[in-house]
Amino acid sequence: MNKNYKNYILDYVKHESLCGNKTNCFKYYKNNTKEHEMVKFQVYMKLIDLGYDVLIEPELKRNLGRPDILAISKNRAIIIEIMNTETINDMKDKFDKYPIDFEIEPINCKGFKIEEWEI
Fold first, then answer.
1. Do residues 79 and 67 lie in contact, with contact meaning Cβ atoms separated by under 8 Å?
2. Which residues, listed in sequence order, are joined to residue 55 by a DSSP beta bridge?
3. CATH number of this structure's domain 3-116
4. Partners of 72 in the beta sheet?
5. What is the pLDDT of residues 39-74, one digit of tens each?
6. CA 6/CA 9 separation, integer angstroms
7. pLDDT per residue over 19-39, tens digit each?
8. How many CB atoms within 10 Å of residue 55?
9. What is the pLDDT of residues 69-111, one digit of tens each?
């Protein structure tokens, strides 16, 4: 992995956050639905298997938001939002806050099958 690119992307992450923004460490949030957390865990594991560095619900600096997943590879940074009852339109304001350096990948929990998901 290109460390300069990774450091550039990680510079968006608020490291002094109380949520503990650690790479490749899954965090379960009990305020989310179990379905949301299960999909998030499946996506997390697949990303790890594909060689991504993964942060779960990292707090971004400058009030840019808190995505469900931030995945970083040698040349890609992907924000993944797991949607349960929300629609893309419901999430538009949240998506618009994210920096242009990130790809945004929304995932709908309903009917989600990890074996069919491609990144």
1. yes
2. 23, 70
3. 3.40.1350
4. 53, 77
5. 999 999 999 999 999 999 999 998 899 999 999 999
6. 5
7. 557 888 898 888 999 999 999
8. 24
9. 999 999 999 999 999 988 889 899 999 999 999 999 999 999 9
Say what the pLDDT of residue 20 is.
59
Token output for 11 = 């510079």
Tell me the two tokens of residue 95: 């998506």
Mapped to the 3 state alphabet, what secondary structure does the chain carry?
CCHHHHHHHHCCECCCCCCCCCECCCCCCCCCCHHHHHHHHHHHHHHHHCCCEEEECCCEHHHCCCCCEEEECCCCEEEEEEECCCCHHHHHHHHHHCCCCCEEEEEECCCCCHHHCCC
pTM confidence score:
0.90
Distance from C-alpha of 56 to C-alpha of 90, rounded to nearest angstrom:
21
The domain segmentation of the chain, as residue ranges, is 3-116
Largest CA distance in the chain: 38
